[in-house]
Design goal:
The chain has 213 residues and is of the alpha+beta class. It has three helices and nine strands. The protein has a domain of 121 residues: Jelly Rolls. The strands form two sheets. Strands 1, 3, 4, 7 and 9 form a five-stranded antiparallel sheet that branches.
């Protein structure tokens, strides 16, 4: 039963996100991706610039796309590169959590020289895909399927490790909060006991003085 459940979950592990958006040449577009640690991320982009005289989108080789990826938890920059209008980037997450992926063009200038850009972006989150064409002369179809299965099992293990890391962080925060609550309760009890002892001593001295009078 466990094996069948795991096999049903395998197609969901490698997330592929495809999108396209428009922006000006002086704009910077960013979005966040939550990733487990030690996860390979592959990105493929295609940028087109608007040709006003031809009234169409075209790919200009002079157009460059700058890609920057930052781990928000540590502030570490894992990618900082500029590529052609049709390019790729790859990185491996070192820390679990949100990663900020930003893209902008190399075209600069005032508002009169701004260019309209359309960018297609595909992001593949998970293990690198095997190059089946290069290995077709050396391995059989069955061995290729087994290799893909092993990659997906490794993805399951990374997801489980990430969940354990999140659970450990939450548990530590809960234990710290509970510990502070216990110490605060003990402090309140101590203050109440001290106040009670002081009142008893004060009343005792007061009545003794009154009796002597």
């Amino acid at each position: 039963m466990r094996l069948s459940s795991a096999l049903l979950a395998l197609p969901l592990l490698t997330a592929v996100k495809a999108l396209h958006f428009y922006f000006e040449s002086n704009e910077r577009r960013c979005f966040m991706e939550e990733l487990p640690s030690d996860t390979i991320v592959e990105g493929h982009y295609k940028a087109y610039i608007w040709d006003e005289p031809a009234n169409t989108w075209k790919m200009d080789e002079e157009l460059g796309i700058h890609v920057a990826v930052e781990e928000l938890s540590s502030g570490h920059t894992v990618v900082n590169t500029r590529g052609p209008p049709d390019g790729r980037f790859t990185f491996t997450s070192h820390e679990p959590g949100d990663h900020n992926i930003c893209l902008h063009s190399n075209i600069t200038g005032g508002w009169l020289t701004n260019q309209h850009i359309k960018l297609y972006l595909d992001i593949n989150v998970g293990s690198s895909k095997a190059d089946n064409e290069a290995d077709s002369s050396h391995v059989t179809t069955l061995s290729s399927k087994l290799r893909e299965l092993n990659n997906k099992v490794a993805d399951i293990q990374r997801e489980q490790r990430y969940m354990r890391e999140v659970e450990a962080t939450f548990r530590d925060a809960s234990e710290l909060t509970n510990s502070r609550a216990v110490w605060w309760s003990l402090l309140q009890i101590g203050v109440l006991i001290g106040a009670g002892v002081w009142q008893m001593r004060y009343l005792k001295v007061y009545f003794e003085d009154k009796k002597l009078r």
